[in-house]
Amino acid sequence: MRKQISSDRGFSMIEVMVTIVVVAFGLLGLASLVLRGLQAGADSQFRTLAIKQTYDMADRMRGNPVDAKAGNYDGILPSGSPSCSSLLTAIKGGGIPVVTTSSTTPPSCSGTGVAFDSSCWQRANMTELPMGIGAVCKDTTANSNWYAVIVSWDENRSGTANKSFWITFEP
């Protein structure tokens, strides 16, 4: 009497290899998802810091209304940046104003009044954001008293500022 061996038991080598390939693709997709989540978190942090910095300058100007109304905050621009008229034209036309600079050395907090506000603000921009830099421009059209406060930074670490956040307000 001979017993027949059944081949229906267990897994074949091909089934195990297919399972390993499917699990490997699933883990690669999960790793990609985690990396994208980390990048989105970093981008969100940069935007939050830019918003904080923008409102910081607006609060400094509201705290010094005499100089703000006199236009003394107008033209806070780093060297190598587009002019205020270019930045304001971009804002009015629905574009994105991007402030750039040729310097990577943060200024020291020095001076008094507007000079102190400007140097400390730019220092914070440069130290808190990658390639962070800011500008303050006053609209000079007739009967206008509003300012634009712009903060730009390098979100994708390309070496140049490519994202901006700005507000316009009247002190």
- Secondary structure class reads mainly alpha
Order of helices and strands: HHHHEEE
How many beta strands in the DSSP annotation? 3
Spatial gap, N to C terminus: 103 Å
Q: What does this 3D model show about the protein?
A:
By secondary structure, the protein is mainly alpha-helical. The protein has helices at residues 13-63, 65-70, 84-92, 113-128, and strands spanning 133-138, 147-153, 163-169. It has a 3-stranded antiparallel beta sheet, with helices on both faces. A hairpin with an 8-residue loop joins strand 1 (133-138) and strand 2. Helix 1 (13-63) runs antiparallel to helix 4 (113-128). The longest helix has 51 residues, at 13-63. The chain is elongated, with a radius of gyration of 27 Å.
Keywords:
171 residues, 3-stranded antiparallel sheet, 12% strand
